[in-house]
Amino acid sequence: MSYKSLFSLFIFIILFSCNSKYQFILNSPKKIQSNKELTISISEKNNKLIDSVQFSIDLKKIKNNGNSTTLKINNYKLGKHTITAIIFYESKTEKVMKPIYFMADSTPNVYTYKIINTYPHDKNAFTQGLEFYNGFLYEGTGHKGSSSIRKVELKTGKVLQQLNLDSTYFGEGITIFNNKLYQLTWQSGIGFVYNLETFKKEKEFKYTKSREGWGLTHSNEKLIKSDGTERIWFLNPETLIEESYIEAYTNKQKVEKLNELEYINGLIYANIWQKNSILIVNPKTGKVEGVANLNSLKTEILKEQTLDDNDEVLNGIAFDKENNRIFVTGKHWSKLYEIELIKK
């Protein structure tokens, strides 16, 4: 046989081999709003026969009709999910996976605000967490060497009680739950639980599923934690283990750098790092239901002092449930504001 014939035979074998291999395509959109119906299907590049398919989303099986399925996704949490198809063919099976992003079904409501009252605030406090409890403000501050927890008189801004953290820790968000004060640290992967009356440290806890410690609040059932991403974590208050999370999404994109948190009337209010705004997030789905634009509040504080735009930003949300009051401040801000949010 000539060299040319051998070469032709070799090419034929390769082509036949390639053609005989199944090449499955998982058809689905990259992202979809949660009020739309999702259609998923499997096809084979060369239209080869498929015996059957089993689809699932995040390992939960879903019903299908032949090689496709259509389902409503309004009960799913927003954010990243994984579609899996297990394909049965020629007494074989093959698994194909693909990410998909579920987005909110509508644009967020936009809020502005008005200032109800203005109070003094310690300009030296690099505010990381803020809480209102039994008539007093409680504050967590940051930076290694100057991190603390504090009890503060609202009307005067006077620090009534303070515990400084070891200089190895960068303090972050705080919350008060079941008469205990909880505090996160930034990158140390550890949180602290204190006696609320004495500020004596009672125990420590580790968080390993979330990336870092940023903001902290609670829902009367779970501790709620941000880690600087789009994720908001829910912690068991007894074991302090991160049990689940949501991801904050609008109808167009995820929202990252979620920072200080406050739970207000069943919704999560969140500062965004380096943004003078507050997100209002549904704790069940992750939907960003509202955005409060507080940019002009920065203009207000600039009348009193100069600010470093990289660091000295809006951060700190506290809620007086009994009197329906919202308080906000910022890192190294000399004022604390009681505000009312107004839907546009």
Describe this structure in words.
There is one protein chain. 7% of the residues lie in helices and 52% in strands. The protein is mainly β and 344 residues long. It folds into two domains: 23-103, Immunoglobulin-like (Sandwich), CATH 2.60.40; 109-343, TolB, C-terminal domain (Neuraminidase, 6 Propeller). The strands form six sheets. It has an eight-stranded mixed sheet, with helices on one face. Strand 26 and strand 27 form a beta hairpin. The longest helix is centred in the first third of the chain and has 18 residues, at 3-20. The termini are far apart.
Task: Provide a quick synopsis of the model.
This protein is mainly β and 344 residues long. It is 7% helix and 52% strand. It contains two helices and 28 strands.
Keywords for this structure?
five-stranded mixed sheet; 2 helices; elongated; mainly beta; 7% helix; Neuraminidase; 344 residues; 28 strands; Immunoglobulin-like; 2 domains; eight-stranded mixed sheet
Q: Could you tell me the number of beta strands?
A: 28
- Give the overall average pLDDT: 92
Rounded radius of gyration (Å): 26 Å
The shape, in one word, is: elongated
The amount of helix comes to under 10%
CATH superfamily of the largest domain: TolB, C-terminal domain
CATH fold name of the largest domain: Neuraminidase
Cross-sheet strand order for the largest sheet: 22-23-24-25-9-28-27-26
Structural class: mainly beta
CATH class categorisation of the largest domain: Mainly Beta
Unreliable stretches: 12-19
Could you describe the largest sheet, including whether it forms a barrel? 8 strands, mixed
Q: Count up the helices.
A: 2
State the end-to-end CA separation: 83 Å
**Any guess at the CATH architecture of the largest domain?**
6 Propeller
Strand content: over 45%
- How many domains? 2
Order of helices and strands: HEEEEEEEEEEEEEEEEEEEEEEEEEHEEE
